[in-house]
Structure formats: structure tokens, C-alpha cells
Design brief:
The protein has 401 residues and is an alpha/beta fold. The protein contains 16 helices and 14 strands. The chain folds into two domains: 40-272, 2-enoyl-CoA Hydratase, Chain A, domain 1, CATH 3.90.226; 277-390, no CATH class. The relative contact order is 0.12.
Length: 401
Amino acid sequence: MPKLFPTACLACLLLLGCRAGDDAGDAAATVEVASAEEGGAVSTAPVQVEEAESEPVPDPVPGEPEEIDWTPIELEQAEASLSCELDYAQQGDGAPLVDFGHDAIAAALEDCAARGVMRLRYVGKINADFAAMMQRVTRVTDELGIGKRVLDIDSSGGMVEDAIRAGDRIAESRWTVWVREGAVCHSACVFILAAGDVRMVSGRVGIHRIIRMSSSATTRAELNRELRAVYGRVRDYLERNGAATAVADMMMAVPNRNLRLLAANELSLYGLDGINPAQDDLDRLRLMRKCGEDFVVRRDAFARAFDARCKSPNTDLEALNACGLELRRKYDFPDATCPAESPLSEFDALLAAQTPEQVGGGAPEADLQDGEAPLQAPSQEQARHDDAAAAGEPRGSSGGP
């Protein structure tokens, strides 16, 4: 009987196609997908093969506010909803968003403006309509002054160029990206994940080879030259958004009818989980000026402790957030001077409405390792010492909220 269980699990993976089982372990795995075109990472934009012989041509990075075409759009085989709540387990995913006009989005977000936090749940493909939706929702949240934004995504992939276009907009507008338990972020969706300021992952993240459509290539060499140009754009995108360009190289090695599921340590290694490294560098300079060195030291110490104490395989996102909220109090967060810049500050408006009994006390002693004293907010000297001591120790995913 024990020998039947792994076989049954493998059969489940094959039947589920792009969706891997939630009980899969921490190790990386490769599974078959039902259809390479269903989701996937599809490229259709014209390329000049000369790009492959020189430095990759970077996609333009958004600067001045874009002109938005408010022509009506309708999501196909996708669903979107807006919520002012982050507790999806108890509060659900909010009201469906079906009208993507300016006034309709503003009305849907009206209650969120008072709290300063919103969550956009999206289930479906990455395509031009998704990119347009992100552009429109971002514009309205800017106008309403909603500073805390969560993209709660579940996508098997889609169009590479649309993912890059949407990702650059996300990167410039301070989004946190969630892949919660039971959700997937595969293929082109990985470019969306890379763009977030903070990435919180409890679901499955997978990659495979980009599918080149609308190609005039007649030989393997011609197709390879086109793909090299596309991957050049992908590498440039990943680099400017804090993810390892090795992700693009790994994608090339996985047939598009297979899917390479990334393990937790790989998500950390390739910069796809926790704090975005590129944004972290920018924030560090800003926070040193605004909040002081002590704030930055405590923030870094919290991120290390969050990795070590909160992240483990098969932890759902609600538990991950709860652990972080409990842990940050030991590091004197939210900070009195810089509350909005404190870790997990998107939860503060919601916590402010709770009673002291609901908020509860400090981290339970049961969460501490044997013989370990409760955490104290570290001094700058102690935090630096902890950095050196932790250099050779195994940890969970790098970064944190």
C-alpha cells in the first residue's frame, strides 16, 4: 500500500496539467502540461534577428504618466475582483470587477480610499486586457491616494510582451504580489511576480520555454535567432526588476509541453520571493534619509527573522502574514516615525479597527526554539553581528515583507 501513494500523486499532477498539487514538497519538479498554448509563455511581437547579434534592446521603462485609452474592455476567460480586505479566508475576494471604466473602478475603490489599502484578485491569462486593467486600476488608486496595493494573482501564463508591459507598470507603482495557496503563477506570470515590490508566495511558480508564434522561420537556426532576440528582452526585463537573468536561461532548457516548478530555495535564489532586491536598494537610500539608520537596521533584522521563523514549505499565505505581524512587534514595528514604511504596513489600517483582545499579545513562547529567549529589538551593533553569524546558516527564502 505505501508504494501506491507516490504513483497516485504523479497521476494527480499529470491530470492537473499546469496546476501542481498543494502537497508537493519543497524540491523542484518537472511535470507535463495539458496544452502548451493554454496559458504558457507565448511571444508574438515582431523581432529583428540583428538584436541577437548585439546587446539586447531594452523595453522602455515607464516615466511620465501614460495616456490611457478608456475604450471598454471585457475579460475573456478571466475574473477580477476588488476588496478593501486582506483577510481573504474570512472576508473573501470582494466584489467582481466587470466594468473597467474610470468611474466604475473609482466607485469600486471608494471604501478602500479611507483605509489606504486595496487588493485586486485576478484569475486568468496574462494578455492585453490584463495589462490594460492593471494600467487603469493603478491610475485610479493613484488618484484616490491608495498607497497599499496587493495583486492577488492566479495565472497559468499568457503573452510575454503583455506580461512585460504590465510588469513595468507594476514595478513603477508599488504593488505587492501574492501567489496564495491553491494558486499558480506559471510561465509569463513569472514576469508579473518579478515586478512586485514584495512577493509573497504560498502557491506554485513554474517556468518553461517561450513559444514563438507568428514566426516566418523555416529552420531551427532561424527560429533560434528569433528566440535569442526575445530572450534578450526577457533578460533585460528581469535584470531591471531585480530577478536573476538565469531564469531566462532555465526557461530555454524546459520544453514548452513540460513545466519546471521552482522550489522555495530557488525562488529565493532567483529573486522571485520576498522583498524585490532592486526596489530594496532604492528604498534603502530613501529610508536612511527619511527614517534613519536604526529603522533600516531593524527592518533588515526583521526580514531575516521572518525568513527563519515564518517561511516553511506548504505554509498558507494567511499563516505567513499572521506570523510576520506577530514577529514585527519584537522589532518595534510599526515605527512611530515611519509607520507607512514599516514591514507589513498594509495591514495597519485593518488592525487599527481591532480591539486589544483581537490584536493579542506578543509571539507565543511555543514558537521559540528550545532554550531560546524571546526576541528583542536589536541594536545596530547586534544586528550587524547577526548578519555575520547568519552568513553560513541555512535559511528560508530571502527577503520578507
